[in-house]
Amino acid sequence: MDDPESTPDPNSVAVLVPAAGEGRRLGGTRKQFRMLGDRPLLVQVLLLFEQHPSVGHLVVAVPKDQVQAASDRLRAEGLSTLTAVVSGGEHRQASVRHALRAVPDPVETVLVHDAARPFVSATQIEAVVQAVRTKGAAALAVPVADTLRRGNNGLLGDTVSRENLYRMQTPQCFRRSWLEEAHRRATADGVVATDDVELVQRMGRAVQLVSGARRNFKITTPADWKLAQQLWEPWVDDFERTNVSGTDSA
User: Fold this and answer.
1) Can you give the C-alpha Rg of the chain in angstroms?
2) Cys-Cys with 23: which of 31, 46, 96, 128 at CB 3.0–4.6 Å?
3) Model-level pTM?
4) Got the DSSP string for 110-178?
5) What kind of fold does domain 10-139+168-245 have according to CATH?
């Protein structure tokens, strides 16, 4: 018999997916609705969390004129943990705030994930969830590997040390009360941040760094989309082995 204290409570974790962006750099159809494999990118991302034992709720923010259509499509995919599809805001932060309002009361832990990151593993998801249970806030990040230099007027300048520099990824995970407080304060102060880690840090909260993986990239440009299409089938073939064995490729 399983130890009740070690069995994940899916009702305690909700995943917020802001998917209302226009994807201007990629162009054409909004990337979250483009087909990756046999399903739209957004559906593929949601399925990653649908299959995770720690996740009990999915809340998605989409363009306000597509709420009903997106809701119908997502529910037709049989997503049993889909709790709500809400209208997104004028920017990512507003979309997360709208989604946060739809999280059911019992939920204690909230995870925010980009709609354009389809290559995150179950091991990485579990790592940030577990870190939040002890630290209160955690996010995936990878060390900067490239040489960094300043530039001005088309010329390269001084080299910038990459020591202790990280590229942020998602999921980013938080105690619900911390994230709600951070968004309330940001709204009151008129602050718009690039991610939720920054908002939580503004409250004086420490955020635990959890090692990410290079494969967990965000699809932003046409080159990213082409790479995602090339990687998708091998990823699907490898998905079960990767998540059962608990090992991730970098």
Assistant:
1) 18
2) 31
3) 0.90
4) EEE--TT-----HHHHHHHHHHHHHHSEEEEEEE--S-EEEEETTEEEEEE--TT-EEEEEEEEEEHHH
5) Spore Coat Polysaccharide Biosynthesis Protein SpsA; Chain A (3.90.550)
